[in-house]
Design goal:
18 strands; 338 residues; alpha/beta; 19% strand; 26% helix; eight-stranded parallel beta sheet
Amino acid sequence: MTELTVRRDVPAPRPRVDLSTRLAGRTFPNPVFTASGCAAAGQELDQFFDITELGGVVTKSIMLAPRSGRATPRMAETPSGMLNSIGLQGPGIDAFLDKDLAWLADRGARAVVSIAGGSVEDYTQLAQRLRGAPGLAMLEVNISCPNVEDRGQVFACDPRAASEVVSAVRKTMTPDIPVFAKLSPDVTDITAIARACVDAGADGLSVINTLLGMAIDTDTMRPVLAGVTGGLSGPAIRPVAVRCVWQVHQALPDVPILGMGGIRTGRDALEFVLAGASAVSVGTTVFGDPMAPVRVLAELAQALADRGFERFSDAVGLAHRPPEAALPEGPDPVGDPA
């Protein structure tokens, strides 16, 4: 019997564009990250490409204790998207530190650890356990969780609750590790939540988490998901995500944004960057194309070069500038391989 090997395709050489980006004082070699929940802790994707090629690997949200998640079925396809109701299944912080984060550190990847909890104390304990952890480059605080101490109100939907979590985490985590708050689009004014998080000490913002949605099976005439509702991701949410990035950058232009929501191509990524994102996360598309993160990176580099950019940072938020100041000098900006 021959051993099965997974092909690791080598992406085409990228144009000479400086792709480095700074997020809250920390420099990353390029702006393309994975998205939380779509690539576990990176080991699965590392079969297909070298994950150290990415700006960072955003882990699945980790909680204090092991969690089995919700009952099945907990995933469903929708037009141009996917619903998930996984329920933050995971091994708990102890196993995560011993196995997943240790592997990322040994691999040389820049780990962005996503944390989630049901109380402010949960988040505080998680931040405490991660202090000084090898390989940790950034912390993403997933506040789209029900607050068990406040009748199940989602932290991300209440400025006060969101700020309490962010403040506790920022005070607990070492100053050299950026803390990003992950915002939900299921609010009336996302900029109000963004301001509350930044005022509480968030160094940056991850925009956006999934939208709440549901699907009904017209044959069984019952909800498709066992949990009834789930998080909608994929291309269907990209216009909403771009709008949120635009609004947050317009309100808080000096705050770095990690943008995400339906990115499949380099051109999609560029749209987020022009709206104000200093980096992007590639998520749902990896289920059908595990090479997507490095492909998006190569396509983004080419798209920037085609538009005359020598540095990625010059494109961040460019769509907010007056038309006469928008385009750099360089080649014809019309062509786009993405």
